[in-house]
């Protein structure tokens, strides 16, 4: 089981759109995949038309109730979803009450080790105890970076946090998100990031209204408009992620 | 894989149009896409090993599925073409189940059907799919129509699935009993899964006349031979010939044991003709056994370079094909056809003459005497073998043991079945030891001949070297089997086992 987290300190950078589409791609060839929507806003859950409600969040965290009880099947055979719940906003508090809180998400996921080949964790923005526990559970963290100064800055904040403060052994895989080729700043920063940061995945996700419309149609872009250039970009990005993980395993 | 979706399969063969009408009338159930045409094939081995392992294997448009018949759990694997062997399936759960169940048997298409599939989905108030319904309609080759409704749940929506089933049951006016989709297709095709003659026990009663009991058993053996003929001729897998040969050998053993039950003239005639059948099958079987052993030999003597034995594989395969051609010719000959029809007629008419003084005796009495005699022969011949005995004596003992085994298996049901099973189990251990010795002996001789032929060919020096090592390995196997014989036989000849035979064959033990 490989665990990927889509994560960014900054919000509104295309994190959930990436999680929604990448999870669908992971499950496309009948590979058992789970997307766990850990963002209390529940956008990934909404995209898959599932009610954002989880019975007994506290007991799940305390392992008094198995995680699998909360899992819902999506409309796509190999893809399941662990829904968001507004009570996830208190997850920090609940984690704080258990032992080895930063390892708790990893420990919970071990319950599902035999069930899934891919788990994608869609995280809320910001740095918190929950995000630290999520990062500790992931094999790789996918970081959407909008080519703007502020977004780029948060990537380096995250790197510093992961490497220096938390001392986590997680691979950081940043990718360009919401790229608008018409903007000079985007073009310049895209070039700079691709050239300057070897971790950066090569496929940029374009800024497209079709991605925004996903919230309206409530289906992955790859289902509604599979030929759209943004859908193609997600496909290429997924291949690149798999290839990168394969290489790092070697 | 622990992901399980509740799935209920309903046979709606009687009235599929009514089901379509019902589904079209439900507000929350919607058609999903156009009607699809799919081709489904049910696969199993000739002797239904998948069925007996509790599974049902089906292939449908590039996907191979193993359904656990007890739990309904389905494992799938992408598979472009119909697999013939477990090795054709990529490693994973389906492959492992197949390999365990089928071993050396080929997969056969048991039922093929073209189906028109209409898919429906049940939606909740968020327009989320909470259950799937597939309505499959088609007809099997015989023309029998088939209609199956598969109501599949979605994980986390069990209540909705149950509600849909309740609604369907109410509206259909009948409970939506879960069926095995394979059973529905087999029934439509008029097939009885698991119906392999080699497995069925012949029903005998202790008081049945001996000639009738022998005839009934032999008829069953003839049925097994006939059932396997086509597979032997087509050379589908090695087990067709194995089962055919076992039926021939058992028939010969019964003929041998039927003195005073069948007229000598009849016995002598058919013993000769069945011996011909045995003889003509032996070369192919020996080569099959050799062929099946090659992977283990390669592992033992050429682990680093298994390809070095490729010339051996070629030679064995060529010989096997030549021997098989001769066997096929025999099975398609007039002589064989006459043997089958004459034997069948004899079993139906049950001739008697002045010598058939035991023909009307109860089978339990005759069987007791014959088994006891066969047991004493095994004991006598086994006891006569010491460290210096020639291998022919072990070979003869092996034949004696086969006769005893076949008699026990043929007539065991008229005695205490549990005790018979224990006796067979103990005898089997001895037979395995003798079989290992004999196989190694035959293969040593064969290997020598193969090596001479391969040595004549240029560029196969490495292979000849490997064959030398292999000859040593086989010799060691034979030596090990020989060394084990004293222990194997001592166990067979132990006080407990002797008491078992006495108890089994004493007059009080009759059922």
Number of domains of chain A: 1
Whole-number mean pLDDT of chain B: 91
Q: Characterize the overall form of chain A.
A: globular
What structural class do helix, strand and pairing data of chain B support? Answer: alpha+beta
Would you give the CATH topology of the largest domain in chain B?
A: CHAD domain
Number of domains of chain B: 2
Assigned CATH class of the largest domain in chain B: Mainly Alpha
| Chain pair with largest interface | A-B, 17 and 15 residues
Structure description:
Chain A is an alpha/beta fold and 250 residues long. Chain A has 11 helices and 7 strands. In chain A, strands 3-4-2-5-1-6-7 form a 7-stranded mixed sheet, sandwiched between helices. In chain A, α1 crosses α11. Chain A is globular, with a radius of gyration of 17 Å. Chain B has 511 residues and is α+β, with helices and mostly antiparallel strands. Chain B has 2 domains: 7-189, Hypothetical Protein Pfu-838710-001 (Beta Barrel); 197-509, CHAD domain (Alpha solenoid). In chain B, strands 1, 2, 3, 4, 5, 6, 7, 8 and 9 form a 9-stranded antiparallel sheet that branches. Chain B is globular. The mean pLDDT of chain B is 91.
Task: Throw out a few tags for this protein.
heterodimer, A: 250 residues, Rossmann fold, 7 strands, 13% strand, globular, B: 511 residues, alpha+beta, CHAD domain, 9-stranded antiparallel sheet, 9 strands
Give a brief description.
The complex is a heterodimer of chains A (250) and B (511). Chain A contains eleven helices and seven strands. Chain A is α/β, with parallel strands linked by helices.
Topology at a glance:
The complex is a heterodimer of chains A (250) and B (511).
Chain A: E1 2-6, H1 15-27, E2 33-37, H2 43-47, H3 57-61, E3 72-73, E4 79-82, H4 91-96, H5 104-109, E5 118-122, H6 129-137, E6 140-145, H7 149-165, E7 171-176, H8 184-196, H9 209-217, H10 221-224, H11 229-249
Chain B: E1 7-11, H1 16-25, E2 29-31, E3 36-44, H2 49-52, E4 55-60, E5 63-68, E6 74-78, H3 93-102, E7 108-123, E8 129-140, E9 145-153, H4 158-172, H5 181-189, H6 210-234, H7 238-256, H8 264-301, H9 310-331, H10 334-349, H11 363-383, H12 391-411, H13 417-455, H14 461-492, H15 495-505
